[in-house]
Amino acid sequence: MLEYFYFRNHLCISFELMSLNLYELIKKNNYQGFSLSLIRRFANSLVQCLKLLHKENIIHCDLKPENVLLKQRGSSSIKVIDFGSSCYFHQRMYTYIQSRFYRSPEVILGLPYGTAIDMWSLGCILAELYTGYPLFPGENEVEQLACIMEVLGPPPKEVIANASRRRLFFDSKGNPRCVTNSKGRKRKPGSKDLSLAIRCNDTIFVDFIARCLEWDAKKRLTPEDALRHEFLQPTSSSSSTSSSAQQHELRRSPSEVTTAHRRGQQTTVNTDTSDQQYSLYRLYRGKKSGSKLLDGEVGDAITTNGIIAKPKLNGVSSTNGSSRAVSDLVANLSDQNLDDSGTFLPPIL
């Protein structure tokens, strides 16, 4: 908080002025998802934040893309905001917390909760940053748990046995209740693998998310353990994933875009590309992106994924005369350093 004042009997609080939140960033990117390199940077910053909260016994209680902001326009440095629902571990006040898509099983089932619920939200956020849409898009709490079980299978019996709200989701025998959403879809527990759900074949990244999404909060990854995980190490093999063409095949089809709650339409624009210059857009997709800048073109560069990218970044034109500056900028994204300060995003912002 920087300052506060009263206006017409309303308390107004001023905070540091920052840029887009991560949901708006996903939206700006046409819900296409980002490269693992950029996601690792975001993940490292988020885990550092959760490490501090865990140390202070603070539960954020509403971690989601909307509550993670870019510090400034064009930079990948982020800050976590909105501690309005937060509490100390020993002073838990509410049972109805967390936005639905990012709500942990213990909150849904009515179990005691702690700082581990934020790690669950982190796993959901990272999956969404990769795919561009929510991992568990339940229309209500009943379907939310059905979405989770569809990917993770039914929860362990000991988890159900201690749940105060189990009758809402399970019958007297402990079997999940059959749920049909507004589109007539039924979700079968364990019918979808996590790697299939996020359409990613990078085992290290999938393992990191899987360990954030443990049913049992005691077995869930802690912030300290997360920092030691291979995914957040500078030498992680996640930085050298398969080609963008293979990654693109793993992602959702355009028809799936319309099914995602609160998400917009995806459009595709095909255009000729040049091998002379990589587009700044590859900062999202990794170094092997098939998206290129048209050689020597002045004006908007249309990528193969339909993103219109201005050929300028921080006042530097990306025409032939300044391609070296663009190359230098891309080189600064080396995975040898996870510090996100001074790292710039593509000019779609």
UniProtKB/TrEMBL annotation:
Q: Looking at the keywords, is Nucleotide-binding present?
A: yes
Q: Residue ranges of region Disordered?
A: 231-272
Query: Domain Protein kinase: where?
Result: 1-232
- Superkingdom, taxonomy of origin: Eukaryota
Q: Supply the name of the protein.
A: Protein kinase domain-containing protein
- What SUPFAM superfamilies does this protein's entry cite? Protein kinase-like (PK-like)
Species this chain originates from: Timema podura
The parts of the chain that form a coiled coil are none
Lineage of the native species?
Eukaryota, Metazoa, Ecdysozoa, Arthropoda, Hexapoda
UniProt keywords (A-Z) are:
ATP-binding, Kinase, Nucleotide-binding, Serine/threonine-protein kinase, Transferase
The cross-references to Pfam families, in alphabetical order and at most eight, read: Pkinase (PF00069)
Sequence similarity: Belongs to the protein kinase superfamily. CMGC Ser/Thr protein kinase family. MNB/DYRK subfamily.
Composition bias (Low complexity) maps to 235-244
